[in-house]
Amino acid sequence: MSNKTVSGFSKLSKKDKLKWVAKNFFKDPEAVMHVIKGFWHKDAEQQRIIDGFSENTISNFVMPYGVAPNFIINGKEYAVPMVIEESSVVAAASAAAKFWMQRGGFTAEILGTKKVGQVHFTWTGDPEKLHEDFPELRKKLRAEAADLTANMEARGGGILDIILQEMTHIEPHYYQLKCTFETCDSMGANFINSVLERMGQTLQSFAATHPAFSDEERDLTVIMAILSNYTPDCLVRATVTCPVEDLGTFPGGMSAEVFAEKFSTAVRIARIDPYRAATHNKGIYNGVDAVVLATGNDFRAIEACGHTYAARDGQYRSLSHCTVENGTFKFWIDLPLAVGTVGGLTKLHPMAKTSLELLGNPTAEELMMIIAVTGLAQNFAALRSLTTTGIQKGHMKMHLLNITNHLAATESETKKAVKYFADKSVSFSAVRAFLESIRSAEEVEL
Ligand code: MEV
């Protein structure tokens, strides 16, 4: 066994964990400890809270926290918090928000709020008996979970429905209980999973004791009880629309009509071609994930759900849609978003709590609308660039600034570089050569 393995790591103090990592995996342990410690929170209490979110923590990984102002959603103004490491995303969201602010803003509506959970089980008995006795079982499932659902019911939520799905034609002896839930302002994962595990127990005791079942039918195996992150009925729609002529003119003198046609074709391409759809939807999730992260929600769940939804008819497709009809441009997205504004990290993480406050402490439904709108804005900004100037123009300016930064250019050198590269391709070597040329010219002058 290599000396780079360890037992009892989780029991070490934070400092000892850090020392062990530094000593075993870095050439200069002192230097790396200095870097890692540099990201410890200066306030020990805040650090304790952050450490509590995960395990084996040795430091914090910092991400930029930006704000995209000027979002008008259903007539209300928002400044949207965004946590993202990719340059240009927040700028693009802000630009799209401003563009649509001048054209009436975004509208958004909730199409559903149902969450889903499943108890997967196998049973070798007579399927007919299970179907026949299911109404009785359903009552028992609800009754035996009543202590777990009481609070949620008091808030207006709880179990919506429980159905029995026989899947024996796909997998021998396999069934599932497919349950739907309303979890109000919470994402509801803990609630749903607790209820499902209880249902698993009820299921087993039902089979073990029900008089209609023979001795050979007493054995029911619960394979697993877990929520589904696919929530196609927890859905929000965000829309922008305006007369085509109000879209204005675009770089290079492109008319509103030409823009609208190119833009809607770009959306259709993402509908018919999965290669384009993946990139198109990635752009949408640039915005969605950034707000999901900023508000302490689970971006993996949101992405898993969205991509499953995008492939719901068997082909992976664009999540957004566009029509240009009777002189009207309409661009919209239907997005499944199971998010919460209470529970989880939402109130525990100091920055998530701050984000929610910045958004006016929205309900989960309002947050769904804000997130969908941000995704739509991001998609609009990306397609606007792609169908007019191309994406590299904006990106390359940021790229250039990253390179000048890396090469320790002064402010005046950076200004010269920006001017010089305005009509030229940016590459690391070209920028280095340019900086060297102006630096040596200055030396000659001296
Ligand atoms: C880059 O992060 C996102 C885009 O590629 C999205 C798109 O192509 O639609 C610009």
Descriptive account of the structure:
- Helices cover 48% and strands 18% of the residues.
- The chain has 446 residues and is an alpha+beta fold.
- It has four domains: 1-62, no CATH class; 66-110 and 235-389, 3-hydroxy-3-methylglutaryl-coenzyme A Reductase, Chain A, domain 2 (Alpha-Beta Complex), CATH 3.90.770.10; 115-228, Hydroxymethylglutaryl-CoA reductase, class I/II, NAD/NADP-binding domain (Alpha-Beta Plaits); 395-445.
- Bound molecules: (R)-mevalonate.
- (R)-mevalonate (MEV) is lined by residues 86, 279-280, 282-283, 286, 382, 386, 391.
Give a summary of the structure in a few sentences.
By secondary structure, the protein is of the alpha+beta class. 48% of the residues lie in helices and 18% in strands. The protein has helices at residues 14-25, 29-37, 44-51, 89-101, 127-144, 146-154, 189-209, 256-272, 274-294, 299-310, 350-358, 364-387, 392-406, 411-420, 428-445, and strands at residues 65-73, 76-83, 107-110, 115-123, 158-166, 174-182, 220-228, 235-243, 320-325, 328-336.
Give the strand tally. 10
Question: Class by helix and strand content?
Answer: alpha+beta
- Please trace the helix and strand order, writing H or E for each element: HHHEEHEEHHEEHEEHHHEEHHHHH
Radius of gyration: 27 Å
Helix content: 40-55%
Low-confidence stretches: none
State the CATH superfamily name of the largest domain.
Answer: 3-hydroxy-3-methylglutaryl-coenzyme A Reductase, Chain A, domain 2
Q: Which architecture of the largest domain does the CATH hierarchy give at level 2?
A: Alpha-Beta Complex
Strand order of the largest sheet: 3-8-10-9
Number of helices: 15
- Kindly state the mean pLDDT as a whole number? 96
Strand content is: 15-25%
Largest β-sheet summary: 4 strands, antiparallel
CATH-defined fold name of the largest domain: 3-hydroxy-3-methylglutaryl-coenzyme A Reductase, Chain A, domain 2
Provide the number of structural domains: 4
What is the level 1 CATH name of the largest domain? Alpha Beta
Termini separation (Å)? 62 Å
Cofactors and ligands: (R)-mevalonate
Shape: globular
